[in-house]
Design brief:
The chain has 76 residues and is mainly alpha-helical. It has one domain. It starts with a helix and ends with a helix.
């Protein structure tokens, strides 16, 4: 496998995990909206903290993906 193909695979893997992160954020927020009145403060706090951590994870992965794309431009 060439270097370009390897970089493309790494970019697609990063895109996959970004999608998983975004889907997780949407799921957690929808759960919180649907069960807000029945939830206790600890569950709400844990959900908000999880959303924040996943959002940070997505931002970090996005910056890594953009760096990989720039590297791919340099290789080509």
């Amino acid at each position: 496998m060439g270097k370009i193909d390897k970089e493309k695979e790494q970019i697609s893997w990063i895109k996959f995990w970004i999608g998983v992160g975004v889907a997780s954020i949407m799921g957690l927020i929808s759960y919180l909206v649907n069960h807000y009145e029945k939830s206790n403060i600890y569950l709400i706090g844990a959900t908000v903290i999880a959303v924040i951590f996943i959002a940070i994870f997505v931002v970090i992965l996005n910056s890594i993906g953009l760096k990989k794309i720039k590297e791919l431009e340099d290789i080509s």
